[in-house]
Amino acid sequence: MREITAYILAVARTGREYDVAEELSKLEGVQEVTITYGTWDIVIKVEVKSMSELDRLVTTIRRIEGILRTETLIGV
Asked: By residue range, what is the domain housing residue 40?
């Protein structure tokens, strides 16, 4: 079974982008965290073994203080 690669786009509370990025980088499955300008403040690349693991990780990310909204893109 191959790993699932997904990109999670996040909007962070103004001024919290770097704090949130630091928290995100500590999570298991998170491969890369990039702060961006535009509609999305942070792009998070993740690699997980299953959809249920992705679901748990997305839920964890959404609970981080400073995250306002996310959208998940699953690579094929």
From this structure: 4-74
pTM (predicted TM-score): 0.94
CA nearest 30: which of 2, 54, 52, 63?
A: 54
SS3 content of the chain, % helix, strand, coil (to 5): 30, 40, 35
Q: What's the confidence (pLDDT) of residue 2?
A: 81
- Rounded alpha-carbon distances, angstroms, from residue 58 to 19, 38: 18, 21
Strands across the sheet containing 4-12: 30-35, 42-48, 4-12, 67-74
70, 9 in Cβ contact below 8 A? yes
Task: Tell me the C-alpha distance between 10 and 23, whole Å.
Answer: 13
Whichever domain contains 14, its CATH number is: 3.30.70.920
